[in-house]
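Query structure, 323 tokens:
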């Protein structure tokens, strides 16, 4: 028998909402995943009116709950806007404000950040939106600290994703926050989607399509991941790539939006998380295995990344079963 979830996710769907983002939320939070043996999410769709015409009139959504369902949700995913300059309805703004007041987690995909901003819940906070609408967002909501080049922004209980595909990245990030890295990896495998793209990666690289063979960082990153437990340095990665460290830095910034050292540290912390989830209790062993060196450094890096100590992380995310 599937377990009754204690975490309720409500997705608000309004006129013009994009079916892709709705599908992302349904896939990640709505489908039962008995192979994970986890208390998964309870998903509800809710609308301000009985009939909602989706983006470009592709179809009409009917037969779902009203907005009062969102008043009982732990996580509320707000609707994106086909034209961000047209404000959401007062009914939608009111339910978003009520959710913020009671401390619910608020999430937006793509232009849904305009909905959050219109409700006033992004004032003084960091957020992102689709790169195409960045200038419009800045003009409309100068009180929000917009980060226009990233895939998503985690600002505590308010999280925003950039373009449509970044909704998957943010959704997996939420699963990682709630259930740990190993569970998020299991879900990503089911989706045949990359396990982890950090929110700091750039959402849009304005460069021509190469006319030469693929020279992306992917093979280099895979080589480095296989050697996380060794005393691998940025200099070692540059040497293997046959480029200078300055060139390596520029390539990482261009393709990933981060530095080689930050990427390497993040991969090592993710490796440490998996070991903790699998029950390893010897911090010195974990630190050596994932390349963080010492238990003290492991504690520092894990706390910086997850906000948890190793013992707290293990207690929260220890695995029961993952297929």
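Result returned for the query:
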């Amino acid at each position: 028998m599937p377990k009754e979830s204690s975490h309720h996710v409500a997705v608000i769907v309004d006129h013009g909402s994009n079916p892709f983002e709705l599908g992302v939320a349904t896939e990640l939070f709505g489908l039962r995943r008995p192979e994970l043996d986890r208390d998964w999410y309870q998903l509800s769709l809710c609308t301000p009116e009985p009939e909602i015409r989706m983006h470009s009139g592709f179809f009409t959504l009917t037969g779902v709950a009203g907005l009062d369902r969102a008043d009982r949700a732990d996580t509320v995913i707000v609707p994106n806007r086909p034209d961000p300059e047209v404000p959401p309805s007062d009914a939608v703004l009111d339910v978003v404000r009520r959710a913020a007041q009671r401390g619910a987690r608020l999430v937006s995909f793509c232009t849904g950040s305009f909905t959050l901003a219109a409700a006033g819940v992004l004032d003084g906070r960091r957020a992102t939106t689709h790169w195409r609408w960045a200038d419009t967002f800045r003009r409309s909501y100068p009180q929000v600290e917009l980060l226009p080049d990233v895939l998503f922004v985690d600002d505590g209980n308010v999280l925003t994703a950039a373009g449509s595909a970044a909704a998957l990245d943010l959704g997996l990030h939420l699963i990682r926050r709630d259930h740990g890295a190993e569970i998020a990896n299991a879900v990503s495998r089911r989706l045949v989607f990359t396990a982890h793209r950090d929110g700091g990666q750039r959402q849009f690289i304005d460069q021509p399509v190469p006319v030469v063979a693929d020279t992306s960082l992917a093979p280099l990153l895979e080589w480095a991941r296989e050697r996380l437990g060794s005393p691998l340095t940025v200099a070692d990665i540059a040497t293997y790539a046959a480029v200078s460290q300055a060139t390596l830095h520029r390539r990482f910034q261009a393709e990933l939006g981060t530095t080689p050292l930050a990427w390497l540290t993040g991969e090592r912390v993710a490796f440490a998380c998996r070991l903790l989830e699998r029950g390893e209790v010897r911090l010195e062993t974990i630190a050596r295995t994932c390349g963080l060196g010492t238990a003290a450094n492991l504690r520092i890096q894990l706390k910086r990344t997850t906000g948890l100590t190793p013992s707290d992380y293990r207690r929260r995310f220890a695995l029961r079963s993952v297929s």
